[in-house]
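INFO  loader      accepted 1 record
INFO  loader      residues=291
INFO  predictor   begin
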Amino acid sequence: MKRSPLGRRGYLAKSCIVREGGRRALSWREFTEGVTSLPGRWIYRGGLEHWTHETSLERACNAWKVPLRSARTVECRLVREFQRHPEVREYLLDADDYLGWLALMQHHGAPTRLLDWSYSPFVAAYFAFEALLSDRSKPANSVHAIVWALDVEWLARRIRHRLSPHDWRVYVRKDSPSFKKLFIDRRPALRLVGTAIPRMLNQRLSLQQGVFLCPGDVTRTWSENLSALAGARQRPRLRSFLMGRDAMEDAFRALKSMNVTARSLFPGVDGYAKSVAHRMRELWKTPVLGT
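INFO  predictor   done
INFO  writer      dumping tokens
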């Protein structure tokens, strides 16, 4: 019997994710060589090794002790409440543009079913090292940055296998009415994970080459949706790249040369201030002229 890809509380077990380099942490060079040699098309997500693939809606339900079986009802009420606020009227979104509203809510920190991924492994690496830099765990070397990679060609094949021909045609339209029909209104809910990109991209989503991975059944965890899509005989085509603090200086230096910085990903003074903080070691090492 094959081991379930799901671990405790319905999250993906580490054993079902192929880790590049085995159990050891990779150097920045090994990471770049690894992601550039992946065959086909992949999307990426950066974070810390102990993080789970969990949507903000899941986290909010857990934090407020709301049963996940009620997540669909809670989500509808959250969207309706968000739409009522006068400050969102400037975005000129249609009331029926459900994906657009979810993307706007995600952008501003409200709980949603959307999980942020990127088409760029280096944007994902930025977020992984940003999380590592902010982490206060002791000892410092006990926590690692990680970049997850998901094969989107595998994902598309599994979705096509899962859906009827009619529903597949609806899915590939990639517009808000199709999203609402398959992901929001469908009864019973489809247990799968699919890509979603709103028609109107906000600035950050565009700069970060972002894409959302969305579960069809929010009464189950995101990982349970992905596992159901994979089926009993397969495991999700997921890989991971683990890196420690030793790689951080090389990473931020290389990312700066690619123009993947807080300043480029988060336009404005806040992004610029964070990018200066990321150069702290570089500025410390640089001799000051005239001294």
